[in-house]
Amino acid sequence: MKESLIRELYELEETHWWFVAKRRLITEICERYFKAEGGAALDIGSGAGRILMDLEKIYGLGVGLDSSPAAIGFCRARGLKNLVTAQAEAGLPFKTDCFSAVVCSDVLEHLDRDADVLKEIYRITAPEGGVAISVPAAPEMFGYWDELHEHKRRYSKESLRELVSAAGFKIELLSFSNFFIYAPAKTVRRLKMALSGARGGENVKSDLGITSKPIGVAMSFVYGIERKLILKTGLPAGLSLVCVARKT
């Protein structure tokens, strides 16, 4: 990921409704599905470190791995210490069966060998532990947003199910997310692609930006509802996919 986007993440993820909503979903998944007592958690693609901070509170020991020295630097600025700079595709530098929970949020789409990394995640996950995954959905929407974030692909529900199952995991939850903004985001991104065709440079920023407080409050409320629906019934469509899978 470009350093400008990592910096934007660092500046926004504490308060922006988008990042807060994603973080709350991931932490609730970990608390609900993967035991914390005596466990440890790994955040692959830890970015600017805000999710890792929550994992440390839940599990006591949280480890962050990222291939970007800039990302590791932002994690250190948050006071995080258990950090590893490494390429996930080169193999995860951890012992077998050592993590109760692994978070892989918005990572697989960046990798050429996503299947190999999932097999490595399976190896390092403790028995009865598991992985929480989020990836961009709707392959037909692949465009400037994905190029900006250096994505290799977007996933269908079926392709993610096959990928996770092939690694050896038992899937316990597979749902779309970002349901309520799916249609407007799809329209906006198609218009941007049609009108500009612009490509991201080193200092480009994402579509998120800073929103007003009323909008932030409203979206936080909407995403609170969405989180409950994902965990209870699942959602039929959305910009992203969420998967919870266990090592048995």
Please explain how this structure is put together.
- The chain is globular and about 50 Å long.
- It is of the alpha/beta class.
- The longest helix has 20 residues.
- Helices cover 43% and strands 19% of the residues.
- Helix 2 runs parallel beside helix 3 and helix 2 packs parallel to helix 9.
- It has one domain: Vaccinia Virus protein VP39 (Rossmann fold, 3-Layer(aba) Sandwich), CATH 3.40.50.150.
- Helix 5 links the parallel strand 4 and strand 5.
- Strands 3-2-1-4-5-7-6 form a 7-stranded mixed β-sheet, sandwiched between helices.
Explain the layout of strands and helices.
Layout: H1 3-12, H2 17-33, E1 41-44, H3 50-59, E2 62-66, H4 69-77, E3 83-85, E4 99-105, H5 114-124, E5 125-136, H6 144-148, H7 157-166, E6 170-177, H8 182-195, H9 213-232, E7 240-246
Parallel strand pairs: 1-2, 1-4, 2-3, 4-5
Antiparallel strand pairs: 5-7, 6-7
Helix pairs in contact: 2-3, 2-9
